[in-house]
Amino acid sequence: MSDFTIKNLNLSSISENFSHTFHFSIKAGECLGITGPSGIGKSVLLKALADMLPHQGQLILGDIEAHTLSAPQWRKKVTLLPAESQWWCDTVGEHFHRFDDTLFAQLGFTKEVMNWQINHLSSGEKQRLACIRLLMNEPEVLLLDEPTANLDKTNQEKLEHIITEYQHKHSAPIIWISHDNEQLERVCQHLLILNKDEYKVISLKKAAL
What we know:
By secondary structure, the protein is an alpha/beta fold. The protein has six helices and ten strands, in the order E-E-E-H-E-E-H-E-H-H-E-H-E-H-E-E. It has a six-stranded mixed sheet with strand order 6-7-8-3-9-10, with helices on both faces. A four-stranded antiparallel sheet has the order 2-1-4-5, with no helix packed on it.
């Protein structure tokens, strides 16, 4: 298990390919939801925060500035779960360094899943497995782009619960993109509302999960 230190994620003057320059902080153990119309730049923002796209400004996790680390080093700490997960080997097991009984069982999988062919998986199975893979790598910050978009209600609730458990256990800052306002009210403490001409951050009630 990694040695987690409580860290805030701070953004200052983050810009490039956006219609806005962002200034905000996410406290350790809190979740910031992002909502706004399609095409406004929500996913682009997360990719910039994961150092997958060029950007200007300052990004700090605790006392570590992103520019002092290589992109792969930063992504181990600040990890993106994209809307469409990526798979590069033939079987599920080739994408994991071990089998975690608890995590896999919580999302409805037995050890046999390690032998499943990737090209036979449904979009929902891929998304649940991608979430497991993300959490098993133990990042310090989670960047989640529509993580439950392909899931039915039961699996959506399970995934929300698992992510919230991780958030509380590791005091992890989380940024969660969703078009489901009810979901954001459940899982987030703050909400960034992104529009063409402006953005604002508002506080929500403590997540109920």
